[in-house]
Automatic annotation (TrEMBL):
It holds the Pfam family OTCace. It comes from the Bacteria. Belongs to the aspartate/ornithine carbamoyltransferase superfamily. SOTCase family. This is N-succinylornithine carbamoyltransferase. It is an enzyme of class 2 (transferase). InterPro entries: ArgF'-like, Asp/Orn_carbamoyltranf_P-bd, Asp/Orn_carbamoylTrfase, Asp/Orn_carbamoylTrfase_sf, Asp_carbamoyltransf_Asp/Orn-bd. Residues 2-160 form the Aspartate/ornithine carbamoyltransferase carbamoyl-P binding domain. Keywords: Amino-acid biosynthesis, Arginine biosynthesis, Transferase. HAMAP family: SOTCase. It catalyses: N(2)-succinyl-L-ornithine + carbamoyl phosphate = N(2)-succinyl-L-citrulline + phosphate + H(+). Residues 184-309 form the Aspartate/ornithine carbamoyltransferase Asp/Orn-binding domain. One of its GO terms (biological process) is L-arginine biosynthetic process via ornithine.
Amino acid sequence: MKHFLSLADVSDLNHLIISGIEAKRNPFADETLGKHKTIGLMFFNSSLRTRISTQKAAANLGLNVIVMNVGQDSWGLEMEEGVIMNGTKAEHVKEAAAIMGRYCNIIAIRSFAELEDRDKDYAETVFQQFKKYAEVPIVNLESATRHPLQSLADCITIEEFKIKERPKVVLTWLPHFKALPQAVANSFCEWMNPMNVEFVITHPEGYDLDPKFVGKGQVIYDQDKALEGADFVYGKNWSSYTHYGQVLTQDPSWMITEAKMALTDNGKFMHCLPLRRNMKVADEVLDGPRSLVIEQAANREWSAQAVLKEILLGLNV
Ligand SMILES: NCCC[C@H](NC(=O)CCC(=O)O)C(=O)O
Ligand SMILES: NC(=O)OP(=O)(O)O
């Protein structure tokens, strides 16, 4: 594997899922693979899970790890080419990426959607610029449109907990007062498409995702109907894609409660976290036996380890 920006960079998804499960069983099997190599983690946005799990996975592989909060620890970075840099950003990505590429063998980046200009967000400029100028593998720690390390952890979690060969997986929109990106939902759809699952997506009208990500996913606007017989309920809020970045409703009837979970086939609840309790999901679900959120977050370490291992193997050939 060269870069890890989306599912398109994965040649064998099943192999990657198995590799994650193997890393969980034996975390230090490849502890010398990253010896004398460095990974730089660059955060343009906040993180708990991604930051710690990637750091931990890299350490398990023997990598040296540098973590930086861009714009706080470092200079603000200008991404556009040919502009007069008379604003708040003191350094251009052309120099910053090239320099980071000299210090690091792998660069991992988190940079969320700004939710103002859809074309700008969906162009993924930060990632394209680093890919162009750093000349080392780039790993996506959540971009404007995707969160593939999360999606891989989700696939691992579904493989671990499924009791049917072809489970029903329902992605449901949840209410939130803030405008959040579509990245996690897009990515989850993208990764569910090749999986052996019945995949259903439910959200209020106006929250349709980019069809490119929806793929074979079946959209049902009635949440109760969508939840019927579900084995996994994957909750997430996202702002509108069509009315870009807008919050069109906060309808509390979309919150996941025990009554909603009772519509499923003894279904399990998943969410990437962080989440607002009793806004998106009721305490009774999160604190009960149906919730997989902690297991799911723990699997972030193994999804990161599987991906970094593939990239290191690619570096060493
Ligand atoms: N990395 C996991 C999700 C990150 C982000 N959530 C958030 O920003 C939640 C913020 C809040 O609830 O205030 C998102 O939806 O893409
Ligand atoms: N799920 C996830 O990516 O969490 P963080 O935003 O805390 O990294």
